[in-house]
Amino acid sequence: MTxxxxxxxxxxxxxxxxxxxxxxxxxxxxxxGTVTDVAHNQGLLWIMDTLTGGRRLLxxxxxxxxxxxxxxxxxxxxxxxxxAG
Length: 85
Hints:
This protein has strands at about 20-25, 30-40, 45-50, 55-60, 65. By secondary structure, it is mainly beta. It has a single domain (about 1-70), classed as SH3 type barrels (Roll). It has a five-stranded antiparallel sheet, with no helix packed on it. β3 (about 45-50) and β4 (about 55-60) form a beta hairpin. The chain is globular. The two termini are about 15 Å apart.
């Protein structure tokens, strides 16, 4: 198993569509998925969440958001729509 270093993304400025992130509160993983949109000036980003299977709005003021290793998807699934697994 290959590991990749995670790091905190500050206020969404370091994130862009296509990045894979994890969102935690109190150390507990709540969301994981691929960024679809970012509102840098508001500290918000939207992801396709692989844990819940839906689109989620994440707020940097409420969650600790870190980059995560890229999701491995079947060849026929576009990267912006990861499959829950």
